[in-house]
Amino acid sequence: MTLIRGRTLSFNRMPVSMDDHGAYSYEADGALWIDDGLIVATGRYQAVKAQAPEGIEEIDHRPHLILPGFIDTHLHFPQMQVIGSYAANLLEWLNTYTFPEECRFVETEHAQRIARHFFDEMVRHGTTTAAAYCSVHKSSADAFFAEAVRRNMRMIAGKVMMDRNAPQGLLDTPQMGYDETRAVIAEWHGKGRNHVAITPRFAITSTPGQMSAAQALVREFPDLHVQTHLSENRDEIDFTSSLYPEACDYTDVYARYGLLGPKTLLGHCIHLSERERDVMSETGSVAVHCPTSNLFLGSGLFPLKTLLRREKPVRVAVATDIGGGSSYSMLRTMDEAYKIQQLLGERLNPFESFYLMTAGNAQALSLADRIGTLEPGTDADFIVLNMAATPTMALKAEVVNSLADELFLLQTMGDDRAIVETYVAGMAMKAGL
Ligand code: GUN
Ligand code: ZN
């Protein structure tokens, strides 16, 4: 049982403007009372202290800012060594670097080693929950989930299903993809804080037979997340249309196999037509924006504000997309998201950004009752941020005099160095790295 003191910030909904103070709770002298991995109480320090048992251990993080842990809604754990691969576009990048690298995950020891590094980077960067793709090999999912249990982190992940248009070493079959996904669900779903996601990689690497297998899994396990990629790159879209001529567009491929819905996370969604946006909205599917990846691979500018503003709004989330993405940091990610909106003539204010990284992503994952806020009863996954973490940040911090400015400084200049501590289920995990 511990009392954590600091400046606390937690969002309850998307802010509609910079002045929308009702969208969040902020305490200049706040505290969290945590016990047994959960937040028991939260609020002003004096009020929380009065509720807590006398003599409770106190950790004082003042003057730093305490936030819910960051959530990353799309990344690839077997691509840690793919980051920074020099390619012209998505398909060249996949074929030249990414698929060969993922072949290495047939080796269990390699998968276990990379899984350890992966969780270290999550903790270092203040990300307490992520939705991850493993490789096609079941053993990569085993390595990932075993490490998640060891770290007691709430993770979503899936064995990738892919049965064509990739090297032999990365192909399963419709039956194998189905059987192994079922086995991963049986072994790992609900174990520790694990959630298994049904993960057909994308339409290009799944035959119609495999898409039917994915559909069968969704029917059997309707509560599980589904994750895949959609409309990232023009050549990818054209190739998909040639592979699924009966579908009226890329989104329709997934719709035809019953893969859309409120638990479905679709990476990228950059080039969707109005019809596709309507389908996304009607099914409650989530468009996952991966800004560092979209810029790095030259994929395009995600119309974040346009999707939110529509008469039929599309649910959105934000993510790093490691290793197409170039940083594990959600702060770096939102800095790039901001710049993409600038290029589109849109504004993304710092409250919106910090909402998206925390409560917004939790809602997109349908996990807002467990993570993404500092609400009592939820998981004690939270982080401590220092806006003066580097000399250049400290200099700028001298002239910061509002919460909005502080958040914007953290987003614009911050990275893992701004994360003072990462608490996972109430335990400080970063200091021990
Ligand atoms: N589309 C299919 N697979 C991938 C992947 O690994 N990364 C990205 N960025 N897009 C994909
Ligand atoms: Zn991806």
Taken from the alpha-carbon principal axes, the silhouette is globular
| Rg on CA atoms, Å | 21 Å
Helical percent range? 25-40%
Query: Which kinds of small molecule does this entry bind, naming each only once?
Result: guanine, zinc ion
Could you please describe the fold and organization of this structure?
The chain has 433 residues and is of the alpha/beta class. It contains 15 helices and 16 strands. The strands form 2 sheets. Strands 5, 6, 7, 8, 9, 10, 11, 12 and 13 form a 9-stranded parallel sheet that branches. It has a 7-stranded mixed sheet with strand order 3-2-1-4-14-15-16. The protein is globular. The structure holds guanine and zinc ion (ZN). Residues 76, 90, 94, 98, 201-202, 229, 232, 293, 321, 324 line the site of guanine.
